[in-house]
Design brief:
24% strand; 136 residues
């Protein structure tokens, strides 16, 4: 039998609202690669990579993609005797709301998909093609 729908809705609502502030062990990270078995390789704002685990409440409920953002907690990293560096506390789904928070790292600023190219040619949109009769 499948999971009750209330669990799915609760997990979705939990990820839509950002916390008011972060503790010293919490950080925003960018997902770089899925390592398998609910383990993800993430990049911190200082370019350090960490291996974090997705908790069971998000498994098969919230899907993550490469380049997405997560809130991780590293306080259990010293206690555990394995290769994990932390745990995912929250998955950033509504990114524009999270970016407005004061704790959002500047290193993860939004990058335009169309970078300004100063060497761009003059646009020909709305102009007629050149004609051969101009020489006569």
């Amino acid at each position: 039998m499948g999971r009750p729908k209330r669990n799915l809705i609760a997990a979705a609502e939990e990820t839509s609202t950002p916390p008011s502030e972060l503790t010293s062990t919490q950080s925003i990270a960018q997902v770089k690669k899925a390592e398998g078995n609910n383990l993800y390789l993430c990049s911190l704002p200082n370019q350090e990579t960490v291996l974090v685990e997705l908790p069971s409440r998000f498994r098969n409920t919230i899907w993550m993609k490469r380049g997405g953002y997560v809130l991780i907690d590293t306080k259990e990293a010293g206690v555990r005797e394995n290769k994990l560096d932390g745990e995912i506390l929250n998955v950033v789904r509504d990114e524009h709301v999270w970016r407005k928070q004061s704790y959002w790292p500047r290193e993860f600023s939004k990058v335009s998909s169309y970078p300004d190219d100063p060497e761009e040619e003059e646009s020909t949109v709305g102009k007629m093609p050149p004609s051969d009769s101009e020489d006569e």
